[in-house]
Amino acid sequence: MNPSDARPEFQRYQLAFAAHLRDPRRQPRPAGVDARRMKVYAALLYNNVESFLLACFPVLRRTLGTRRWTRLVRTFFATHRCHTPYFRQIPDEFLQFLQSGRTPQTDDPPWLLALAHYEWIELALSVSNRAPGRAYDPAGDLMMRAPVLNPVLASLRYDWPVHRIAPRRRIRPSDTHLLVFRDAEDRVRFSEVNAFTARLLNLLESGTRTGCAALETLAAESGHPDPGLILKAGAALLEDLRTQGAILGA
To answer: In this structure, which of 7, 148, 195, 227 has its CB flanked by the most CB atoms within 10 Å?
Structure first.
């Protein structure tokens, strides 16, 4: 403890106690605390936090290996200050730590952040309580009216094929678009889509464009010599997205 600290002694003791639990290798154990009991307590807390991370990031754990994963989690446990009391949100905090609270290491795989986000999104959508912001007709005309997207949906783009990452599998960077949403049976579904579908979903996100208007914008952006083909293919795509549950109606 720092004798120049003006805080009451019990507060300084609490801070020292918590600091040792977070980082027992670098922070000294407070005087008068049994070393064996403190070691058990520290292990219980660390294992509890790690168990929530393992449930959300199993592929990241397997691809990093035991040594790098443990180092990563221990750094998170020791240095990150969570802003939530809920255990379910520990993976949210871990993602924030990876994105902005940690100094990248030389042995980090280049896809670390992308894979972590990809695994996290499943949890985020599985517990989302978002609902459609307006009434809709499930059988409505998707071309002449504004399609209503599933509110529990994410259209994602990564520089890596994150859905193919696995231990001992070599992958190369590639522009990857993924559609993720929770279906009517509360299952989170993932599918790889092309840039055309991703752009269409982006145009429909505001809820102000009819399907036809969104496809006309796409045709103009692509400079396709036959816009009619874009409209025909797009109409079929809209119906397919409705069948899957990514579009709820119009």
So the answer is: 148
